[in-house]
Amino acid sequence: MxxxxxVLGWLGLRLAFTLCLLMGLLASPGLAQQRDSIPxxxxxxxxxxxxxxxxxxxxxxxRFGGAGLVDEVEVIIGRDLRNSDRFEVLDSLPPALVxxxxxxxxxxxxxxxxxxxxQVEGTGEGYVLILELHDVxxxxxxxxxxxxxxxxxxxxxxxxxxxxxxxxxxxxxGDPGMAASRIAFTMTDNEGNKDIYVIDSDGENLDxxxxxxxxxxxxxxxxxxNKVAFTSYKSGLPRIYELDLRTGDEKMLPEVRGGGDxxxxxxxxxxxxxxxxxTGNARSGVFTYNVERDCxxxxxxxxxxxxxxxxxxxxxxxxxxxxxxxxxxxPQIMLMPAQGGDAETLSPYEYGGRGYFTAPDWSPVGDMVxxxxxxxxxxxxxxxxxxxxxxxxxxxxxxEGNNEDPSxxxxxxHLAFVGERRWGFGLFVVDVATGRLRxxxxxxxxxxxxxxxAFSTER
Amino acid sequence: MIVRRFFIAVTAATLVVGSCxxxxxxxxxxxPGPDMDSLRAYQDSVQEAEEEARRVAAEEAALRAEEAARxxxxxxxxxTLAEMVFFDYDMSEIRDDAASALRAxxxxxxxxxxxxxxxxGHADDRGSTExxxxxxxxxxxxxQDFLTGFGLSESRFSIVSFGEERPLESGxxxxxxxxxxxxxxxxxxxxxxxxxxx
Lengths: 459, 198
Known about the structure:
The structure holds two protein chains of two kinds. Chain A is mainly beta. Chain A has four helices and 31 strands.
């Protein structure tokens, strides 16, 4: 990437800002809302106060039969870039601006910092999308790429366009995007049964992937996005299953005959190991199982208390989990080495607060762990703690209703969660940096979202 | 029986009369009054039979009553085994009322060694879905510990949590929540071998 100085400067500012956020130093009045009730821990909301760079999308063109697809591709990309929460997106521009010639002076007058031009070409078999990112301030092209897009009827059509959107984000910011990803979650039917559904990051393509009409909970994506593990009561008792989305094959992991509830599965980032919790057995706590070799149950932590909801750090060396080892009614988040060992508290229990903190999810790109908790009894909000910060500062991301079960997007910047509002339940997405909130699927009784990794290559 | 005895008596009298040949018939003797002894015997036997019947009927009734009472006791014991217990918000501690309900199960389980129970833990819908699975299991486990604390073998119990997934009452108020934070008991073996005990 050949980034001009202006962009570097802007990136630098943003980096400095992020550092402030991580160090918990930034608490300028009006920015950080202090609603602190945990001794030793400040609870606040730090929003990025930099104006976001304006990004314009010059209406795409089409040729060799690609014209029919232009509008749809442009709409998907425009929405993805808005959802990235990294730009002020200028689109719906006058048709006069259509064309393959770029008038940098005009875009500069319109306030754009970035400009995207695009062309859809028919290839006889699907299409090629040619995208180009321009730095308007310096009046030059920064990056250009070609993306294979299958025919509209192909199941991968939208995902292929999302992958192109994520490349645009990477070109402009150097950071990963999250458009090419899906979110798995539970939805409850009228009989109170739950099945697993998936939906694209932009709220399209709602698919049902299990149909047991029983209790099926806690979906977890494999890192390659090909499998989903979950707990189901379909045999009468809670057991963990892995479903291969390509073949529809399903198997119980591990194969269990004895007692104990097998719950809250999660994959190791290398995809070979599944970590989960067994409760009510002679030995309760976190276990791992090698799914690649279909063997080897290993006990990590637990005992008379229960450790549950494990989640791996991106390097796979650490694990955060939920525990009730401090007693009833005060579940806390703890960290330990991924092979087991001494655990330390991440949630603010040790600082004199008690509180109720559950449902941890470790960011796929950094040292942040999101969870939900209640400081005021009975009201739950999405919180983010920095691992390097000993949980002394929690960022609170929601302030309305009840909010549970956050799951990080592959960009490490967005979280999906379940929100309960006066009008009902819904899946929401919040941008940790700006606090911007967007409903993904509203008015349905949804639960336990798990955001996939980026579907960065064709599978 | 009565009819037959009378018939025998009359037949005997006729035979005596018939043996007199052509002589003018003597004035017929006064028909013999029933023999007092046989009458008494007859009456006694009737009474005996009636008493016997009454005794048998009473015995049968007593047996029936006893069986009905036993069935009632078995049904009551079944209800006692199945009686739910309730928990405080977010707690797995056995409350006093729950302890009484569990204690009542102990005697029946002791007297009915074939009976096995599945203990189901439930939570109300506040708090986390996954944590509530653990909370429900902790409740089930606490109930099992209470029962095994009385010397009952752990092998007679299995536990499972349904978290907040299977509420007894819908509704988002304390009256619904307090009914949903509960333990349920399902007889998984020996349902026809419940001995209500003494």
